[in-house]
Give the backbone structure.
Amino acid sequence: MSQIPSQTSNSPVFTVGDVPGSKTNARIPQPSGENARLKVTRLVFDQPSFDATYGLWQPGPPLTPWQDLQRQCRKFWARSVQGKRITKRSVYRKVVNWLPVIDWLPRYDWRSNLVADFVAGLTIGFLNTPQGVAYAMATYTPAVTGLYVSFFPLLVYFLMATSRHLSLGTDAVTSVMTSKILSQHAKFARDASTGNIIHPEYNELPYNGSVYTIAEWSQIEIASAAGFLCGIWQLAFGLIGAGGLVVYFSDQLVQGFTCGAAFHVFTSQLRSVFGVKGLQDYYGPLKIINTYINFFKVIATTHIATFIVGAISVVFLIAVKFGINGNRRIMAVIKVPVPAELFIVIFGTLISYLMGLEVNYGVSIIKKIPLGLPAPQLPDFSKMGTMIGDTFAISVVSMSISITLGLLFASRHGYSIDPNQEFKAMGLAKVFGAFFQCFPSSASVARTAVQNDVGGKTQIVSLVQCTIILIVVLALGKFLEPLPKPCLGAIVMVSVLKLMFQIAELLTLWKLSFVDWSIFLAVFMGTIILDVDLGLAVGVGWSIATVMLRLQKPKVGPLGRLPGTDIYRRADVYPSAVEVLGIKIVRVDAPIYFANASYIKRRLYAWADLNNIIKQYRETKEYATTQETEPENLHNFAFTNNITTVDENADVEEDKQRRISRMSVSGPTLTTQRSSGSRRMSLFNVKRLVQPNIDMEILNDVRHSYQSQTESDETLSMAEMVPIKHLIIDCSEICFVDVTGAGFLKKCATECAAVDVELVLACTTKAVRDMLDLCGVSEYIKPHQVFVTLHDAVLYALNIQRRSGTNSAALNMHNTLLRLNTEEAKDLVFLPTTRTHEYVNKAYENTHEL
């Protein structure tokens, strides 16, 4: 094994960059600025000498997993004991963590923000009133419960929220998911498909003297229980610090899911807007498809008066929301969006009352909205066990939508939110609302966007909104009883149109990223074809799978040195990057673990052409002897026994990689050719000489050296004349290695040593080095074979080859070429041969000294 060179005062040094007096080619681009120069003179560091020179925070052998767990527990205990010290500051900090309003309300800028927040609160209040009633109908609960959801949860959220712009309350996606729970567990007097009363006792008898019938109270109980469970789920997420889970909900995942869920919400209102009879309710896979099949079968039963009211409402809402509120020129004049939903509620109620739409035309109306606030009551815990799965899905969906919106608007306005605190705030808001007949609440995409557009600054908007809702619940609720249900259905339909239009993102994502496009498409199609909760599971699963697939087949490619620098870049990306003769540098752009170790080994061996070398050595006695003396513990890892050295199925691809590796180096092409069946060496074709005083002895020496290689039928390029003696793996992108990955490096080091190739690592992280030490890789890759930078590793390899006399003839020939500057060498062209391999390094203007 090669020994580490001693680092004394006579150790090698190198110079980087364009410095005064250096022979740098003037054509190499230089950084802008008169003082943009870099000169570094230092020792060549391997990892042990670097650590000894500059020190480590935690020197010594790496900790085992059990020792590391003990250390983390001690730290946690120390923090816990320190945190239990009761002081005024610690108590204040704890209270503020749970109630952020104590921190920001005293610092509220009343003069600058109050007017904007008040106007935004009025706008959202007027918008939330009809939406609350409409979404309550979509949830299959009494209309007044939508107003309760728009009031009670907001009181808690105002005290605990860290987001300044989220508008909590009713939401289309959450409502349609909650309706599934009610349809399975609640009591209904009417048949959903025919509209006929099948349980008159549910529709006639009041429940314990309240204003609700047995069916309505059953719906409230189930919805409240669902809200309570959703709150418990989200509160638990916040307490265990699951805020990091939001990273798995990318923008494309949320957009695709909300787009698919919007189609479900839109479909759920077909009965309300068209008034068709015989439309059945479907649940589970193919729900939306079966619903439309059934809808077109019974479309002839459309109630004309109901359809006219719904169509007029839809046209008016679309005209206002897209023609006026969506017009930037008009909005620049009126500033505040027109509350189209409020106008629909006001005029729909007046027309229904004056014309008697229910009595004279058979149009369904709300009929009953009780005045006053409900008395607090415990939710029904008896059926919670049967809805745990559904409420978990609702809580996850609500979490993903709310946190994504919060992060979006926080980024726009330059503040931060705490996802864990948001979980706790939304969870306790749901739990609190469950005691007041509230179904699950969530942040609304539409209302949050409106709140931002009209200039809302803080959660003071929620207080103003609650005031508007409170006035409606206490005094104005009776006036909404004649409101036609087609108007509410139209409000719901139009409110999700923007979400449905997100399907156009597929065209944009197709041009940007296939992976993101596939995530959007997977969650969208899963939601449409399967169901809302199953679609979300499909989307999350596919998102994780894309990460795994990209890690399973990472980029593995050769690196070359940029002339005049110590910078190494992909030789197949930068044409000026040149590979060093006798050394193969390969970078792995992913962690090495059980899922990709086989793939990385195949790519690594293909780039370094190790498969052919090992195949030749297998036939020799030397290789057989080396294999017999392998350490026994090498085969303790299952990985080493199930990966073949040569992948026969990838021969074509590996040969292509080898050709790319050889052709990726710019510069003169040194090859031979056969013409008319005869063997001859082509002379230099000097197209032009930048400097007319080129030493012709250099050209003659190079020509003579290469003519001596043409005595055999199979001529070789310079790359083939210089065998690989060092394989350097750039570990800068390897963030972790597992036991399987460590076994891969052991196997690689053993096979490289058997064919007289030294495996060297560079740019390793401490976590990777610790894992390799724990797995015993240091017995195969010695500490002095691990270097701080790539250039250190290259200098080490060249020094070893120079001292051992390896490749001396070819390297002398290469060094002769290096005496030519880059521009001159570029003009020296050899005619192609039967095997053309462009492989000669460009001149190193600022070279290292060994």
About this structure: Residues 559 and 570 are 4 Å apart (CA to CA). The chain has a mean pLDDT of 77. The first strand starts at residue 168 and ends at 169. The radius of gyration is 37 Å.
